[in-house]
Amino acid sequence: MARRKKYPLVMVKWIDSATTHGWQHPEELEQIGPAEITSFGLLVRETKYFIVISTSETNAYGTVAHPMAIPRVAIRKLRRIKRPDA
């Protein structure tokens, strides 16, 4: 079996869009704003414009699951975390 790549574990704090449902009066919208999200995952790809984190990996097939791309302009903080299996 080929040796699998060890992806770094990261914490990402980022800003995401937020919404409400249905019709509202404009004065009811004072509470709505962008949401600050904290995500944890394996950093499987980095580009100039975005990163991709994954929630899971398998050593049996060398695959990752549930990838999510986060635009760099939305990232407030990106921190590497020591992997327990490192």
Which features characterize this protein?
single chain; 86 residues; mainly beta; SH3 type barrels; 5-stranded antiparallel sheet
Explain the overall architecture:
This protein is an all-beta fold. The chain has a single domain, classed as Roll (SH3 type barrels), CATH 2.30.30. The protein has strands at residues 9-16, 35-46, 50-54, 56-57, 64-65, 68-71, 75-81. Strands 6-3-2-1-7 form a five-stranded antiparallel sheet, with no helix packed on it. Strand 4 (56-57) and strand 5 form a beta hairpin. The relative contact order is 0.33.
Walk me through the topology.
Blueprint: E1 9-16, E2 35-46, E3 50-54, E4 56-57, E5 64-65, E6 68-71, E7 75-81
